[in-house]
Amino acid sequence: MDPLNGPVGTHIECEGRRFLFFAGNNYLGLANHPAVKEAAAEAIEGYGLSSSASRETTGTCTLHLELERQLAEFKNRPDAVIFSSGYLGNKILLRALRDRFTAVFADRLSHPSVMDGIPRETGEIVFYDHGDVDHLADLLAEQPKARSLIITDGVFALAGEIAPLDRIYRLARQHRAVVVVDDAHATGILGEHGRGTPEHFGLDGAENLHQTETLSKAFGCFGGFIASTRELIETIRTGSAAYIGSTALPPPIAAASLASLRHYRTHPERRLRVLENARYIKKELHRMNLPTATDPTPIIPLFFDTHEEAEQLSRFLHNQGIIAPAVRYPVSMDRYLVRLTVSADHTGDHMDTLLQALERWRNRHVT
Questions:
Q1: Under 8 Å CB-to-CB from 110, ≥6 apart: which residues?
Q2: pLDDT in tens, the chain (367 residues)
Q3: Over the Cα atoms of the chain, what is R_g?
């Protein structure tokens, strides 16, 4: 781990050096945007650092209410609720939906927050092979009397793969199942308006299809949110222990998130630019015969058979002045990877510097 000595952008400062940065999740480059930082600074003057209370006691400020209103508008939903961490989203939503399912069917490579979020009293928890809708169909058929909930990441955090949500949803309709999508890495990236995986597949607003989302990836801030019906959002506000028992999102973070969302909605070119940057890098990696994923997301994995090989490439890039980590993650995978990510702010020169370093490494180490 490289401790930072400054802000996250196309470059970072650490260990007394300046590095080109192809890591993290600041996909749209908004974590260090001047308008976002200015909004946070103004909110510190106006509200201080924390409301020091939960939302349901004395912790709600006008910034929270305005952020929820604008998130609901962005998502084209009646209402939205924000909370202190995107990781909590699956726990909050699954608890709110608890009376609608007796069995959970989860992708085997789902984010750890999915596993942590499944209520303990759930009768059956079944894992289907990663992205394998045929296997999921077989498992659902084995429990025809179950009231089923299917949960998957929309974009998988490590390899950037897009879940086959269109096929999952068609299958769910056949079995009258509820679908939950952890869209942390898709919101702000996929879909014509950046509403995430459902919009990407033409399922925006579909019945019995729910998303959990975050402000800490594309929007460059912090906290989680759910946008849905007024009934479901009210169930969360009045019945979720994780929501009620958490200190409210700090007002400066809420203000920064508002500024980020406003900037995003008036500058759609950022989303288009990051996707074009990702396409360019992936095209060049394929030209070099370096194994990577093909899905159109800013996550660009380089796959290896051993963790040692991935570490070796990460160290090589570090020595070349580039940060790209070999990732150890609490998800069981049969491959190891260096997880590259690209942002909307990376220039052609930045990307070519990375690609030239990867080509030098390939020429030395790939036979």
A1: 151, 152, 153, 182, 331
A2: 668 888 999 999 998 899 999 999 999 999 999 999 999 999 999 999 999 999 999 999 999 999 999 999 999 999 999 999 999 999 999 999 999 999 999 999 999 999 899 998 888 999 999 999 999 999 999 999 999 999 999 999 999 999 999 999 999 999 999 999 999 999 999 999 999 999 999 999 999 999 999 999 999 999 999 999 999 999 999 999 999 999 999 999 999 999 999 999 999 999 999 999 999 999 999 999 999 999 999 999 999 988 899 999 999 999 999 999 998 654 555 678 999 999 999 999 999 999 999 999 999 887 6
A3: 21
Hey, which bits of 89-194 come out as E strands? 103-107, 124-128, 148-153, 178-182
Last residue of a domain, one of 266, 291, 319: 266
CB 82 within 8 A of CB 71: yes
CATH number for the domain including 189?
3.40.640.10
Same domain, 135 and 207: yes
Of 266, 289, 309, the position where a domain reaches its end is 266
Looking at the structure, do residues 185 and 273 belong to the same domain, yes or no? no
Helix (H, G, I), strand (E, B) or coil at 226: strand
Q: State the pairing for strand pair 336-341/178-182.
A: unpaired
On whether residue 2 sits in a domain, the answer given is: no
* Domain presence at residue 28: no
- Which residues, including other chains, have CB under 8 Å from residue 364's CB and lie 6 or more apart? none
User: What's the token pair of residue 343?
Assistant: 């942002």
Pairwise CA distance, residues 81 & 158, whole Å? 27
Handedness of CA 248, 253, 254, 255 (dihedral sign): positive
Q: Are residues 257 and 296 in the same domain?
A: no
* 243 plus 272 within the same structural domain: no
CA distance 250 to 321: 35
**Are 139 and 242 members of one domain?**
yes
Which pair of tokens denotes residue 62? 């006008």
Report the alpha-carbon angle 30-331-153, nearest 5: 55
